[in-house]
Amino acid sequence: MDDERRAAATREEIRLRAEEAGLGRVAEAVADLARPGWRLVAEDPSRRAPDQGEWLTWRPPLAETLKASRAARGRTRLGGVPVVGEGFSWPRRARTRGRHGDEIRAGRPLTFVAQVNLAEVPPTGPAGGVPDLSRRGVLSFFCDEESLPFGGPEDSDAFAVAYIPLDPDGESETRLADVPDGLVGFDDRGNRWGMPGVVVLEALPELALPAPFPDEVRAMGLSEAEADAYWRLTEDLEREGARVPAEVADAPGTARYPPVHRLGGAPHEIQNPMEAECELVRRGEDPHALPYSRQEEVAGEAKARWRLLLQVDSDETAGLMWGDAGMLYYWIRDDDLAARRFDRAWCVMQCY
After folding, report:
1. Hey, which of 96, 213, 294, 301 would disulfide with 106, CB 3.0 to 4.6 Å?
2. Residue 4, pLDDT score
């Protein structure tokens, strides 16, 4: 399949491919599950399928990162230094406490993960899961790389989402943030964290299928063979969504699965659906301290209220690794999205 053929699939194409994959009994239902969103892929095609190498041992020198940030100032991108407006304060850990034998220190700056220039996000098809995003301004996403958020209420200071409703290239209104002290450090294995490398991203409309975990997938009553076929179909669509040129995909040592960075749409869940966890935390409950039946009680309401805002995969090109090759998921409720209350977003990390 050539690069041009890898345009975003339509629902009819997904239905036909479901039939070909052995899902003819539920092909219509599978196609109806497809959710529109935007796949975020490296603008440079040579960086869309990173080589498998020494994770987290590579981060560019600060001078190189600052230069790349200036060159890609207002672009949608991973890493570097964010564009900010007047009054910006770099997000930091708010409380000192112990966790798994380590100390989380108050005042520790969070890592800048990504920014999305909303003016660069193209229109997509019907809603059905697509966040109602502004067409102007920049969203910036932060996370604590040293102690990642697992979704409990104690992680409320482990991440941040900031929104500036300004033209990111308007130099009289915006600037690159100052790099805070203490952001770059090394652990006892010599790995560097704090300043991921800059990777400029392109937002491409896509239709994606949810993982097999959500209730709407389980409700189809898939047999073991059908469940395997469904999983393979979702993976095929996600690989194609990366728009990896053949010469890059076939290069020796190239990763089989390109990163799945996504704005809106269907989350690539590694472990389980997260909407109920987000809703329980919003209500002041700890989803990890409750029986799973409590999540089931709120699942339907949570599914109707919460939307995936941004998904950031582990990505060697930027030097990002979330746990064991995991992903960050930033979620937001519809009412908060409509009111542009991005500071109320919630973040969960899942890994293998």
Report:
1. 96
2. 39
